[in-house]
Each structure stands twice: as C-alpha cells, then as structure tokens.
Amino acid sequence: MPKKFQSPSGMHDIFGVQFDYFERVREVALRNAKIYGFKGIETPVIENTEVFTRGVGQMTDVVEKEMYTFKTKGGDDVSLRPEGTAPIMRAFIEHNLYTKPQPVKFFYFSPFFRYERPQAGRYRQFWQFGFETIGKNSAIVDVQIILVIYNIFKELGIKDVMVQINNMGEENCRNEFKKVLKKYLKKESSLLCSDCKRRMDKNPLRVFDCKKCIKVKEGAPQIIDYICKSCREEFKQVLEFLEEAEIPYDLNPFLIRGLDYYTGTVYEFFAPQKGNEDPLALGGGGRYDGLSVLLGDEERPATGAAVGVERTVNLMKENGIQINEEKPQVFIAQLGDLAKKKSLKIFEELKNAKIDVAESFGQDSLKSQINRADKLSAAITLIIGKEEAVEDRVILRDMDSGEQEKMKTCEVVKEVKRRIKGK
Ligand code: AMP
User: Fold this and answer.
1) How far, in Å, CA of 52 to CA of 94, rounded?
2) pLDDT of 222-232, one tens digit each?
3) Are residues 334 and 297 in the same domain?
4) C-alpha 319 to ligand 1 mean position (Å)
5) 240 with 368, same domain?
6) Least confident range of 121-125, 202-206, 245-249, 281-285
7) Ligand 1 pocket member 122 (CB < 6 A)
8) Is the same domain home to 21 and 132?
9) What's the gap in Å between 211 CA and the centre of ligand 1?
C-alpha cells in the first residue's frame, strides 16, 4: 500500500463546521473594517528575511526561533511571514503611500507561519485578522482599533473581553529605563533563564515576555515610571477614550508584546476560558512609530493590532456559540433522473430571480431531502417526483402550514416570489 499522508505537524485543514466558523469571523471582521474605513490588503506569504530581522527584531523569539527561513533557488534569503505588520509597512513604503491622504488604514485576514512547538491553541500555520493605521499620531486612532476589535468580539458573541494595556515609551525614554532594568537583571541574573541571560545586555525588555522568568519580572522596575511627559499625556488620553467608549481595561505594567517594533501604547485582548484560571490571549497590538525607520524610510506614526482566528473560533465553540446555516427561502427536492434535470433548470431560474435556494441533488431519497429542507428551515419546498417530471409540474409545499399545491413548472418562480413576499 502506498504511504498515506497527514497535514504537516502543527498545521491543520479547515473544512466543514470549522470553515463555517472561520467564514463567520471573516464576515464580521470584514464588515466592521468597512464600517470604520479600513481597506483590505494582502501581501505575499514570503518576504525578504530582513523585513523581519530588522522590523520584528533579531532577538525576539519569533525571529530567533520561529521563522521558516530558506534560500530560494535564485539565492534570495526569504521567510514565510510570521506576522502582518512589517510586510504591510514594507508595502506602504514601497508604494509611496505616504503621498496619499493620511492616515492610510488597512485590514487583513491572512495565514501566518511560526515554527512553534505544536500545542493547544498554537499552530505552525495560523490565521489572524488585523488592522493598521499608518500616517497619524493621535490617541484616537489607537482607540479606534481597540474599539473595532472589541465590537467584533461582541458581535461574535464572545463575552467579558478585557483589554490589558501599558505604555512602553519611545526610544528616548526607554533608554533610561533599560539602564535601570539591566542593573536589576544583573542583580537577579542567577534566576534568569538562558535566553534572558543572553539577551539581557542588548534587549533587556524581552524578560517581560518570558514565560520562565515570571518571578524576576514581578520584582522588576516598571517602564511606566520612566516614560516622558508626552508619552504619559498620550497614554492618559488613550485611557480616557477607552473609558468614554466603555471598554473595560486593566493596566499591566509588564506588558511589552513579543515584537521589538512597538513603542508607546501597547495592549492585548483577553477572554475567560472554561476550566482554566488564566484568561485566553486573543490578540494584541500597539503603536509602532519606529518601524518605518527600521525598514529604511523616515518616521511614520503608525498603530495596529492582530487577532488570532483559531483562538477566537475555539472560544466561540467552547462558549456554545452556534453558527446558523444560511436559511434558504426555497428548497428543491427531486426523485428520478428526469426530475433531477428539471430541478437543475428551476434552481437556476430561482437563483436568477434573486431567491435564496438550496438543494441536495446528491441525495436520492425524497424523505431525507424533505428532512434536510426542514433542518434548514426553508419556507417553501418544491417537490418534483417522477410523475411531476413527466407532467412538467411541481408540487409547492408551504413548510409552515404543510399545505401542498401542484402547479405548472413555468408558473413556479412567479408563485414563489408572491409567497415569500408575505413571509
Ligand atoms: P502576536 O502577533 O504574537 O501578538 O499574536 C496575536 C494573536 O495571534 C495571539 O493572541 C493569538 O491569538 C494568535 N497567535 C499567535 N501565535 C499563534 C500560533 N502559533 N497559533 C495560533 N494562534 C496564534
């Protein structure tokens, strides 16, 4: 027997009900993106590796350990994208989008790749939807992104979403803090994991993102005490806007996010999960004013956030949130070859008349087809049996009253239209 294959480790097929959940998340996210004026963008799945080593940061887990990096046959150094922001900033710069009216607002719903240890809620290919606003430095644009994501969770039925928020300061105010933090980390170095020890000098802030060094983190100095007046002012404004929008938040002085390009306000979304004291991280984001500089351009104020689709879907399922199948107005049931042929034609005619129509041509038993129509809650079922097919007639059944009426095939569309008008 030839070998059978499975999807690559940590990657999964999306089909059936899972696909329906994905579609629901995509539909709600896209609709909200449109309402708030975000335009779609899709960048290549592969980028020049430097977009990430420079943008995301050489010393982050994402770049150091998790990137799928390889050389092409032509010798180019490329990586599968582990995240969406750096590629979008690359595109913004490449296409001179700073010449367009600012800010430029993007939405995406795309797959990303990280070579992580496969475990519950962590995949090697996963999907995120996200928002980026580039070209405007104002607290309101940060809050608009938090608000749109918060609204999406609400519309999806996810309850008790909480925002954890912090301000990481800009490069200048961060330098002073880094000195103080390094001093503290040196003192506690015997408690640090090997990664944090190695990163301590060049990138001490990474300790806040380390799952192994929680004890050291708890006693560490807090960045919020070192940020400058303008960062403080901006942060205050963000919090005021959040209160105005009635979005619940918690200050988390150690939140720094896993990617180096963040500056200023940063946040993450959490929701309670069943059977686990810790809330589930659904997504996060923040301001990244320095990213354009790292990618060779001048400073462009920017802010954005991304949400994990698999985690959102898993949480929806865990909370018993159902995805209702689209309710068709009409269902066509048929019996026999001639009836099948006629059904195809009627299906097309109804569709062209903008009537929502469903079928189950693959099923031969009339009973199971009617059951399907019932399950879909179709208002009307058209039944074409062997006899009707020969007579060129159709039985129209009102699914609410159970009443049936036989009519000529050529009258069906008109009659269906008349009846669903009253439903
Ligand atoms: P990040 O870009 O790391 O801040 O991730 C934002 C969100 O994407 C997280 O809160 C998760 O919901 C989701 N996410 C990140 N990495 C993975 C992964 N390996 N598998 C599934 N979801 C992920």
Assistant:
1) 16
2) 999 999 999 99
3) no
4) 20
5) no
6) 202-206
7) yes
8) yes
9) 15
